[in-house]
Amino acid sequence: MIVCHCTQISDHDIHAAIDWMRAADPQTIITPGKIYHALGKRADCGGCMPLFLDTMRACDKLGVAPPILRPRTDSKKEATHEGRRQGHRISERRAAV
């Protein structure tokens, strides 16, 4: 499956790069940037990053994951204010009117 259309990176390419990096240095922390570099490519638009990260998470040999690759938590789903500061929340403006 093609993960990055801009640079034509597939899920097989990502897994192969992770396997290669893990074989070269078992203690290395693998990041998306290191994978792009190992494949001789550069990120372009960034639209693939969610799928790229999910593909990395699915790899058995990833090892210790940096914070960006740790499983997502649903703690922010309950927030209705989209992370905006007090007073800048749309729901508060409607209530005040």
Provide structural commentary.
The chain is mostly helical and 97 residues long. 38% of the residues lie in helices and 5% in strands. It is built from four helices and two strands, in the order ββαααα. It has helices at 11-24, 32-38, 49-57, 90-96; strands at 2-4, 9-10. A two-stranded antiparallel ribbon has the order 1-2. Strand 1 and strand 2 (9-10) form a beta hairpin. The chain is globular. 13% of the residues are buried.
Topology, pairings included?
Blueprint lengths: L1 E3 L4 E2 H14 L7 H7 L10 H9 L32 H7 L1
The H-and-E topology, N to C, reads as: EEHHHH
The end-to-end span amounts to 51 Å
Mean pLDDT equals 78
Uncertain residue segments: none
- The oligomerization state is single chain
What is the rounded Rg? 18 Å
Helix content: 25-40%
Enumerate the strands of the largest sheet in spatial order, edge to edge or round the barrel: 1-2
The main sheet comes to:
2 strands, antiparallel
Kindly name the structural category.
mainly alpha
Helical element count? 4
Counting DSSP E segments of at least 2 residues, the number of strands comes to 2
Strand content is: 5-15%
Shape: globular
Features:
97 residues; 2 strands; mainly alpha; two-stranded antiparallel ribbon; globular; 5% strand; single chain; 4 helices
Give a short summary of the structure:
The protein is mostly helical and 97 residues long.
